């Protein structure tokens, strides 16, 4: 019999709609019921494409005996972390404080008022000798302890909330903004963690580390690296190239259909958890574009082209926005949609060509995955050999579309869409693909029309025709950064359009400051001032799988000051720089995207004012040849003779009709 979740909009909640568990969605009804019945609350948090969330659901939440225990002793609440990252942040931090680690599924036991007292992540249904307590045993223990030792649990909850509040204190800013020494030391720390054998950072599991790579690529173009720290520059080159190449050749990249999975389960990038997230692919489009401009590796261009094709083919909504994710499972089996046997390939491609494809893509009788199946990787083939196999990849992709597909989470998130918009905008311009830029622009316009309310407030989620939930800090700031990317290139294909997007970005940042800033301090909260009141209102400094909203704000403020010469933007940027100076010295890995923005600002944001009939296509062609500082193209007086004027920051050169002179000054 369906439970309350069956009618919810969230795919993740719907996936639990047939559980025998008496689930509630997050809301006042569940909290009131807990207080009325004097029961503890179980808050279970996950997302639709999460492999281990599915495993625990199948093993525990579909089990009648276990569900009976849950219903008898607890008020059970299911939360989609992608819709409610605010709730997820608080309970995740609580579990990390208790256990030293976290992850999803996240299962937290709380007092009837929602304050947590214990919790964990995945729990098996029985004892498997792993040292993890079985879920039914834990349920019985917690229920019994709640009845016998309520006062002790009250003390635990009070201490946890106190620690959450204490960890949420404003960052103590340095007296001076961040300096070159701190930036160089941060980069040295980061490249020192590079895995020189396999690329990436650290050991398994391995994540794309997009923000870290963004910082290194931004720093690589600075005069400090080019003239004073060439050895570090060489190390940055090695780190970035080995990581991006290993990912592009590995199994974390979908060699048949394009796009990246969330992370690799091994250190070699061979076997991923197969879920594909919109945010990873938006961020990686931007990274591979920057890397292609610097290193001109044609493999990177292939990755960009194939990832854009996947986004357009599989992830784009008819309204112009983008869906959130693809599940790791199909037919209840992780990776089944993506893996192959030699026999399958020979049936599709023919014996000779199938054997050849297996050789190049590491597909063997033994297999590199489960049950003799292989996830395609491309360890040694040359780019020419890869290109010759394009036709066979297309045949395999067509065959793969005949398989039952992974579930697609069709909710559209303002923040994740904004990351995809920025990646598409950058790739479209620098690879001279105006149709990609048009896709980005259409998605940006869709957000403005559909996700906006009260002049310049934003919703976080659009699903099944309905907009929901107050936008979070990253919804506002990621969207502003995406609009600025559109604005910087709009004159290329839409003369006169840049001002519209600059103005929108200004309005959004004003709204952000009004609703998210912590009074006179440098801190920005993750939730707005009129958001639902939770156990604590989290301050948002740290980059994680996506940049923090505050890190993204650094990029926005830098661009807006260069565009408007409005002192409020530089004042706020300097203020944030003082805070990031302190953070970079302590945990540089925690704030790389902010450091990327500060380096970009130090290099200098460029604006090229094109007056009259200036040849913007020639300028685009020049800009696509090598890496440049962040650059905005602005056009005015299009009926006058061609004149260009370059400004770097707020310092402007004399107008000239010589495009070559502009390009020479634009170099780092």
CATH architecture assignment name of the largest domain? Alpha/alpha barrel
Q: Which strand order does the major sheet show? A: 1-3-2-4-5
Main sheet, how many strands, which sense, barrel?
5 strands, mixed
Question: Low-confidence runs (pLDDT<50, min 5 residues)?
Answer: none
How many strands?
A: 20
CATH class of the largest domain: Mainly Alpha
The portion of residues assigned to helices is 40-55%
CATH topology of the largest domain: the name is Glycosyltransferase
Distance between the terminal alpha carbons, to the nearest Å?
Answer: 65 Å
Q: Could you say how many structural domains there are in total?
A: 4
Can you describe this structure in just a few lines?
With 668 residues, the chain is α+β, with helices and mostly antiparallel strands. Helices cover 51% and strands 11% of the residues.
Describe the 3D structure.
With 668 residues, this protein is an alpha+beta fold. It folds into four domains: 4-166, Glutaredoxin, CATH 3.40.30.10; 180-188 and 195-329 and 409-603, Glycosyltransferase (Alpha/alpha barrel), CATH 1.50.10.10; 338-402, no CATH class; 606-666. 51% of the residues lie in helices and 11% in strands. It has a five-stranded mixed sheet with strand order 1-3-2-4-5, sandwiched between helices. Strands 13, 14, 15 and 16 form a four-stranded antiparallel sheet that branches. Helix 9 runs parallel beside helix 24 (592-603) and helix 18 (414-430) runs parallel beside helix 20 (473-493). The protein is globular, with a radius of gyration of 26 Å. It starts with 10 loop residues before the first helix and ends with a helix. 50% of the residues are buried. The mean pLDDT is 95.
